[in-house]
Design goal:
Chains A, B: Homodimer and heterodimers. Chains A, B: One of its GO terms (cellular component) is plasma membrane. The structure is a homodimer. The first copy, chain A, has about 170 residues and is mainly alpha-helical. In chain A, helix 1 runs antiparallel to helix 2 and helix 3 runs antiparallel to helix 4.
Chain lengths: ~170, ~170
């Protein structure tokens, strides 16, 4: 198959790295936004922040998991460029990419959905405020991060089939 | 590769059909549970049901999408058994399975997470009641349905690579 030529593999590798860098950036901003989200009630003086909600705590956990995974993958890519060898050789590397992207993309969509689900209902009860705005923005960025990871996951699924094909 | 032998393919096909039937059953019960979830406030007499929350409406949408998809896939399987031919021949069938399972599994986990995220926060505010119990059970069954679909998605990703390999 023409798709298995080295140049095509290099293109996929570059596209994959680009997707991981983009995910990393979006997750980083999402993390900052949800971490700084605070609101003081004008009447009661009560402060609310993300840690008051289990759902936002879960969301921040998924952001951190995705963040660490993408950091690791970018480290692997740099190692590959510098040394010319893959960190995990043979089937191991392809399977790690395949399952890694798949599982992490499920984590990211679950965190984003949980965040959206709660934010939408919080917003209906009260007028829009700084806290829910930041939470909404964070969930949106997490959703974009998920979309990039889902694309990377599609790439690595196809890479698995090309790999089997060329061996 | 020995994995591409017809008997192994038949085993995967059967496992895949079993996963789809299980998903279908779990989604069906999840659908009934969230649809019948109702609660009347003892003090105010106010009734709450799933359609009062955008998040539960989204959850029910994802259940219906998953339900219809699995019904379609089961129909395709029955057609294949009866006629001996796949509905979508060639690459089309494998790509449909691959993207179908991938996208539907993302829908299912997002519906389940959104449902859980809201239910957990609703339960914290008020004592456990019939409505949140049913919503929680529905989100749990949806999560199990997701796990089956995620397994099916892993199968169909590998089927894609075997298919490319044997052609």
């Amino acid at each position: 198959m023409a798709d298995s030529s080295p140049s095509s593999t290099t293109v996929s590798r570059t596209a994959l790295l680009l997707l991981r860098v983009l995910t990393f950036i979006f997750l980083f901003i999402a993390l900052i936004l949800i971490a700084v989200a605070k609101q003081t009630d004008d009447n009661t003086g009560e402060k609310i922040k993300f840690s008051d909600f289990y759902t936002y705590r879960y969301m921040i956990s998924t952001i951190i998991i995705g963040f660490v995974y993408n950091l690791l993958q970018m480290g692997f890519s740099i190692f590959t460029v510098v040394s010319g060898n893959r960190v995990l050789s043979g089937d191991g590397g392809y399977l790690f990419d395949f399952f890694g992207d798949k599982i992490i993309s499920y984590f990211l969509i679950s965190g984003s959905s949980a965040g959206f689900g709660l934010t939408v209902e919080l917003r209906r009860g009260a007028p829009s405020n700084s806290f829910t705005d930041k939470a909404h923005a964070s969930a949106s960025l997490l959703l974009i991060g998920f979309l990039f990871t889902a694309m990377a996951s599609t790439f690595t699924s196809f890479a698995l089939s090309k790999k089997t094909n060329s061996s």
